[in-house]
Amino acid sequence: MKLGTVIGRVTLSRTVSSLEGGRFLVVSPFSRERYRAGLGAPVSLGQDPSLVVYDDLGGRVGQVIGYVEGREAAQPFPGPTPVDAINAALVDEMFYSPWQTRV
Q1: Average pLDDT of the chain?
Q2: Element holding 41 (H helix, E strand)
Q3: Residue 98 lies in a domain
Q4: Cα 32 to Cα 26: distance, rounded to the nearest angstrom
Q5: Is 96 among the domain residues?
């Protein structure tokens, strides 16, 4: 699972019937600097391009979410579904303690 900040929503004129009830979010993936800054830091777009994530949990703009990509993203659906990433968690708190190397 990866973490990212929701920076927008996608509005569709048509959807695949298996995706009804959810929505699509535009997500900016976390960078190492974002992990160090924590959840309270202002959101700045990272070096990585943003991605579109299917959401049926109720993520909102400005919220940090956990998402999965690839084959795992299609697992919750009963049949083949055209999604590349899905929202798997809404993050309330985050604690980051980088590994300290000893010299």
Answers
A1: 82
A2: none
A3: no
A4: 20
A5: no
Tally of domains within the chain: 1
CATH of the domain at 27: 2.40.50.220
* Tokens of residue 29, six digits: 């993936």
Q: How far is CA 68 from the centre of its chain?
A: 7
Q: Per the domain annotation, does 77 fall within a domain?
A: yes
The pLDDT of residue 43 is: 59
pTM for the structure as a whole: 0.77
On the 0-12 / 13-18 / 19+ scale of CB atoms within 10 A, 40 is exposed
Q: How far apart are CA 87 and CA 48, in angstroms?
A: 18
Q: How far apart are CA 93 and CA 82, in angstroms?
A: 31
Angle at 77 between CA 24 and CA 82, to 5 degrees: 50
Q: Is the pLDDT of residue 23 over 60?
A: yes
Domain extent at residue 65 = 2-90
Q: Is residue 99 part of a domain?
A: no
